[in-house]
């Protein structure tokens, strides 16, 4: 690890200001992604801003009847919260399908949203990677691509976003709340939060430099039955090949988002009209512009079959 | 260098550390508590599992400075030869290890896993999110998936944990 200086932030706006004052600084929350990457010198921040003491660890009801989840709420606490289990089951299920108990006890809501890709070439500092080193090229294109994206990728990057939680947040229309160094706040819909790689795969979210996440809000409950089905190479402690987050209503209508297929949770609202007709027309519409490689073409079929299993269970 | 004070196994310990020092390295290299092991140093094996403020975490993926004033329990704090924690005794009785390298992490994780079930935390295999989670072999296998055992002592580990869970407290 490279040397760094360390401070404990005293308020969200001060954390944001400290990040502006110290170019290259990073906030540290659970540290489970950042420290891993710092050990590998993929992240080399000269300064860390510890945001654990900010008291952003509460889950509160909102005036509209939804929930406001503090940025520092741990993944375990969020999954186990009675209101989340009862009204937002897809979120509990997605969290519990990710990582391990030890990691979920540390991992935070904001840190989970901002975790970086698991592309093997991003992790191998001997390889070119536009995300790690802008302009260096992409070793994944033409390489081993089994785990990589099938849709929304670019000539510059074909990585996926690894979060399970974010896929459930997308299906629930969550909103990310932030504060900037000057104290101004904004609300970013989850659909606009993560970016596609385009020409700038190192720019992963809508956040500006120093912008700090204070909370994620969920709209009022939408009822229905909640599902998160994750397919992976082993039954636990592995990232998704493909995952399906779904909320299904009694009349066969519902919402669906896919994980493991793109640089962000992948949801196409228009495709959801096909849900009463079964999985195939839905995934055909969601993945209509998919450009899989030879190695990962299986993900397209796997998405359809995973959704079919969810729909069968929903009819159950 | 920064001064860090931790309450480790009921004793307040202060050390001067490089900011880069992980909690695991602080325990092993600076406090001579070598029970916690370093397997992967990347959150992938569980050998470094300790409890901080009663929660199990990987001590390799957190910095010691982030835990100023926190209460840390390591395998040494659970029990010692002659005065074993029930989970340590059950691992011995059921042969819950071969080489023993993963064992401190396994035991800390086991104790915390039972606490999590008691506190009503669901798992990936809990069928009904609104029901009280139960101690079953399936639940324990999922809840213990963050601790890898290269010797494959898994089935005996599950037996040991079930015995502790079923014995009157
Ligand atoms: C072995 C292993 C297996 C895993 N398996 C899975 C899995 O199956 N599914 C899954 O979804 N995840 C998995 N994870 C990833 C895990 O979920 C993430 O590491 C975790 O959620 C990150 O949260 P954190 O709080 O520790 O983030 P940190 O490491 O503290 O931070 C991550 C990033 O977010 C930034 N940040 C943190 N908080 C804020 C804030 N409030 N505002 C702005 N920026 C902020 C940091 O600066 C940093 O850049 C796995 C991790 C490991 C190590
Ligand atoms: S796919 Fe993206 S993350 Fe992977 S090597 Fe290419 S640029 Fe880097
Ligand atoms: S040494 Fe910490 S998880 Fe392997
Ligand atoms: S007993 Fe050898 S690794 Fe588990």
UniProtKB/TrEMBL annotation, chain A:
> What are the residue boundaries of the FAD-binding PCMH-type domain, all occurrences included?
1-223
At the highest ranks, the source species' classification is:
Bacteria, Pseudomonadati, Pseudomonadota, Alphaproteobacteria, Acetobacterales
Protein source organism: Paeniroseomonas aquatica
Mind listing the UniProt keywords for this protein, alphabetically?
A: FAD, Flavoprotein
Q: What's the superkingdom here?
A: Bacteria
Q: What is this protein called?
A: Xanthine dehydrogenase family protein subunit M
């Amino acid at each position: 690890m490279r040397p760094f200086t360390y401070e404990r932030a005293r308020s969200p706006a001060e954390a944001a200001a400290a990040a502006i004052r110290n170019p290259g600084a990073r906030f540290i929350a659970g540290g489970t992604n950042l420290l891993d990457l710092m050990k590998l010198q993929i992240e080399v921040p000269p300064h860390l801003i510890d945001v654990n003491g900010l008291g952003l660890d509460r889950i509160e009801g909102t005036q509209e009847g939804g929930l406001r989840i503090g940025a520092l709420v741990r993944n375990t606490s969020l999954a186990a919260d009675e209101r989340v289990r009862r009204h937002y089951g897809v979120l509990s299920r997605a969290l519990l399908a990710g990582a391990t108990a030890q990691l979920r006890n540390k991992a935070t809501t904001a840190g989970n949203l901002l975790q970086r890709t698991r592309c093997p070439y991003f992790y191998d500092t001997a390889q070119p990677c536009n995300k790690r080193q802008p302009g260096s090229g992409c070793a994944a294109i033409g390489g081993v691509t089994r785990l990589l994206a099938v849709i929304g990728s670019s000539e510059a990057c074909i990585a996926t976003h690894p979060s399970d939680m974010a896929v459930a947040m997308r299906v629930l229309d969550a909103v990310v709340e932030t504060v900037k160094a000057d104290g101004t706040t904004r609300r970013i819909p989850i659909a606009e939060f993560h970016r596609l790689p385009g020409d700038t795969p190192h720019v992963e979210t809508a956040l500006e430099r120093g912008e700090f996440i204070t909370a994620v809000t969920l709209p009022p409950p939408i009822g229905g039955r909640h599902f998160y089905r994750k397919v992976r190479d082993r039954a636990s402690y592995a990232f998704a090949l493909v995952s399906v987050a779904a909320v299904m209503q009694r009349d066969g209508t519902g919402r669906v988002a896919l994980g493991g297929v793109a640089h962000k949770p992948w949801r196409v609202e228009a495709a959801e009209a096909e849900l009463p007709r079964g999985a195939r027309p839905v995934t055909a519409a969601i993945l209509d512009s998919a450009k899989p490689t030879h190695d990962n073409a299986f993900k397209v079929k796997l998405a359809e079959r995973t959704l079919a299993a969810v729909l069968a269970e929903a009819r159950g | 260098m920064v001064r860090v004070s931790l309450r480790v196994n009921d004793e307040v310990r202060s050390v001067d550390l490089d900011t880069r020092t992980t909690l695991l390295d602080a325990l092993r290299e600076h406090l001579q508590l070598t029970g916690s092991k370093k397997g992967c140093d990347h959150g992938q094996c569980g050998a470094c599992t300790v409890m901080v403020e009663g929660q199990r975490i990987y001590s390799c993926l957190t910095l010691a400075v982030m835990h100023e004033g926190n209460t840390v329990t390591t395998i040494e704090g659970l029990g010692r030869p002659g005065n074993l924690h029930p989970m340590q005794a059950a691992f011995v009785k059921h042969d819950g290890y071969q080489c023993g390298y993963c064992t401190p992490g396994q035991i800390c994780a086991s104790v915390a896993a039972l606490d999590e079930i008691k506190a009503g935390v669901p798992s990936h295999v809990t069928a009904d999110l609104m029901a009280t989670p139960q101690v079953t072999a399936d639940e324990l296998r999922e809840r213990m998936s963050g601790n890898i055992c290269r010797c494959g002592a898994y089935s005996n580990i599950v037996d040991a944990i079930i015995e502790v869970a079923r014995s009157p407290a």
